[in-house]
Specification:
Length: about 130
């Protein structure tokens, strides 16, 4: 299996970390009855639960692109320096993003997000060019 597909497989761990943090903090703030229910009424999240929720939503913005790029590279049999470094950068920066967002670190968090996007761009260039 290529590095890109290996990282894609392991990226599911990042997804579950996001989901676990978001649901755990939501349950802590609003209770298990609310979390298990239909959540028809909107309730205010605490600071950490809100950050975990927004971090998950942010991950959901770029994760589909990573999945597509890794799969296209794998299906096309493309694995080169750009796709490998890009996939590695994406995973590394997405891992770093979680604690920075939860701790409320400004600017550096944005740079880390940009780094993850550059990783996606590298993958794209490695596939297309």
């Amino acid at each position: 299996m290529t590095l890109e597909l290996t990282l894609l497989t392991w990226s599911v761990v990042i997804l579950f970390v996001h989901i676990g943090l978001q649901s755990g903090l939501l349950t802590r703030d609003l209770g298990s009855d609310y979390n298990a229910g239909p959540r028809d009424e909107k309730r205010e999240l605490g600071v950490m639960a809100g950050r975990a929720d927004r971090a998950l939503r942010n991950f959901a913005e770029t994760y589909p692109a990573f999945i597509i790029l890794a799969l296209v590279a794998g299906i096309a049999g493309i694995s080169n320096g750009l796709t490998q470094w890009g996939a590695g950068a994406y995973i590394l920066f997405r891992l770093l993003y979680i604690p920075l967002y939860l701790l409320g670190v400004p600017y550096l968090r944005s740079l880390i997000f940009i780094g993850a996007c550059i990783g996606l761009l590298l993958m794209f260039c490695g596939i297309v060019f």
